[in-house]
## 1
Amino acid sequence: MPVPKAELHLHIEGTLEPELAFALAARNGVTLPYADTDALREAYRFSDLQSFLDLYYELMAVLRTAEDFTELADAYLERAAAQGVRHAEIFFDPQAHTARGIPIGVVIEGLGASLDRAEERYGISTRLILCFLRDESAESALATLEAAKPYLHRITGVGLDSAEVGHPPAKFREVYEEAARLGLRRVAHAGEEGPAAYVREALDVLGVERIDHGLRCMEDPSLVDRLARERVPLTLCPFSNVRLRVVDTLAEHPLRTMMSAGLLVTVNSDDPAYFGGYVGDNFDGVRDALGLTEDQLRELARNSFEASFLEDDEARRAR
Ligand code: ADE
Ligand code: ZN
């Protein structure tokens, strides 16, 4: 039995497996520029974050109807349940869909239809986190939050993702202030490819409660001390970091060093269809590559519930 865990860093669009991409393409009359699933998998060789994002956004063309989003989420939840996930806080990228003419309501209601049955079908509690694309403008982020207002009952928080370098957190101060006024929780990707200074800025300017990735905080010892003291969770994604060349090999991943430094770290899958495995596979991968003990694996699983947006009693039940 896999250890019960929460997954806190998961882009639902990054769970689009090649087989589902081709099935949706056929259903929706979309032509993909790949002969078959093998040819598509061949394209999964990334040199950095941007080379991945180019393919990630390209494949989203197959997602068109609410049912498509429902099927996508169902497929993720089924795989996640098999790997011990009891709670999932799921990111989605509305601007990547509205830019293609898909209304935000189609995306949210489609995902919502799956999440509504997730407890009953898969034994997984869920939350939805709306992410802003940081390589789009601050105005576009504000317009996206405005468009999401009729659906806020379905949304727990906001996040920030896409190409990091050159798009510092402070660019999104206003939309995060508005999100806070609306009672939304706040997280942001920072310190994946971008510098440790972006981690500080996400905390100080955007008021985030959790940092997605945050790896590069290790370059700033006083920041590490602060993150440990304030128990700011970091949602690490080991397979992602190797595939996007943030670290050279899994054996060189700083996860263990980060745990020893007293950081509240969690293990997650990011975009599992693209990076070679779901969250349980990431747990197994770091166990083998870094020689983590059963106690350390249990600590990571415990951290995932502590770092979640579940209330204490809900987290106890999920564990
Ligand atoms: N969007 C999907 N996956 C991402 C990642 N790892 N970093 C930034 N944006 C993303
Ligand atoms: Zn991510």
Note: Residues 5-303 form a domain with the TIM Barrel fold (CATH 3.20.20.140).
## 2
Amino acid sequence: GSRLHLLESTSSTQIEAIKLAEEGAEAGTLVISDMQTNGRGRLGRNWFSPAGKGIWMSLVLRPELPVRFMPQLTLLTGVAVCSAIRKVTGVEAGLKWPNDILVNGRKVCGILLEAATEDNKVRYCIAGIGIDVNLSELDYPEDLRSIATSLKIESGTSVSRSRLIGEVMNQLEARYLQYENEGFAPILKEWEALSASIGKQVRSVTLNQVIEGTAIGLSDSGGLMVLTEEGKNSTIFSGEVEII
Ligand code: BTN
């Protein structure tokens, strides 16, 4: 089959990419849709994906990786997309752990990695990337207006979606090779350099605990290390982390 699938509309490019991966699509297969009717976000949320205004795409990856390293792949994807946004638009995008991309405190991009696994190994992984490119304030539903933004709003000009897609793919390929050759350490350093979380007060709420403190860095495995007010070190591995 072909490696690039350009769609006008679909429920979710994640679902299309999973279908292709299950049929044996090779690594690098990319599904892009002009709009999504049921875009999905992390933690069961919806992803607003209007026609013609954003980049809604899913990439098939086939890393030879134990499942426990998936968080590293997630951070790698964030570094690649954040670098691409900076390079193409000059907008000072920053990473919010684990991999939202923010500009001036508002979300401009969300990343969703979904993996199919077998015997604790990754069979394939779908990297879903949603970038708000050319939306105007009025394109957003009321509830998103204060928390989301677009590259056009932030830079004051329209941004070429095809150029940005090209740069995202270049960056992903480069980081992926770097990860294979040099391991996670260089990616971790870059993530910290592009971070909008580190040095900030953060709060993470899960079913059984609340962690609040200053984000101080990433652990070797990619968790967010937090120094609490009582002077305790905690590492957050999953869920939602608010910058407060
Ligand atoms: C998040 O919750 O921040 C992650 C959002 C991921 C959205 C992208 S858009 C392309 C791909 N297809 C989907 O349905 N979701 C991802």
Note: The chain has five helices and twelve strands.
